[in-house]
Amino acid sequence: MKRLLGLGGVSACVLLACSAGREATIDVPHGVYAAEWVSVGDSANLLTDDAPEFDFRGDSLWASVSCNELNADYGVQNSQLVVSNREVTAMGCPQDEISVQDALVRLVDSSPTFEVDGELLRLTGDGVEARLRQKP
């Protein structure tokens, strides 16, 4: 049985399927995360000086992507970030920032694998990898 979880409160629970059919849980801390690394395929880090930020609050995701903003509802299902009602503003941005924006939007739309390692979140999907570190 698949369950989509809203992420509310101070922390949330990600369900992981275990080989015995039991479910294990890990806590996913809410808050603001700054991107440290974004790559597409074998490319190097695409980030410039202004690191995109992701804000996970309740069941809402807000992200600064280039000079635009992304808003969506989200949950975690089977260790994947699942978004709905995604919107992105359409301001004209410098070309080097657009490549980061396009990669992050593609990543969010791909239902990426969602991994937590302390203050580090790793999202991987559709050939894009993003590493995000929680801000104090």
How would you characterize this protein structure?
The model is unreliable at 1-27 (pLDDT under 50). This protein is mainly beta and 136 residues long. It is built from 1 helix and 10 strands, in the order βββββββαβββ. The protein has one helix at residues 95-109; strands spanning 11-17, 23-29, 31-40, 53-57, 60-65, 68-77, 80-88, 113-117, 120-125, 128-134. The chain has one domain (11-134): Lipocalin, CATH 2.40.128. The strands form 2 sheets. An 8-stranded antiparallel β-sheet has the order 7-6-5-4-3-10-9-8, with helices on one face. Strands 1-2 form a two-stranded antiparallel ribbon. A hairpin with a 2-residue loop joins strand 8 (113-117) and strand 9.
Please render the helix and strand layout as text.
Layout lengths: L10 E7 L5 E7 L1 E10 L12 E5 L2 E6 L2 E10 L2 E9 L6 H15 L3 E5 L2 E6 L2 E7 L2
Antiparallel strand pairs: 1-2, 3-4, 3-10, 4-5, 5-6, 6-7, 8-9, 9-10
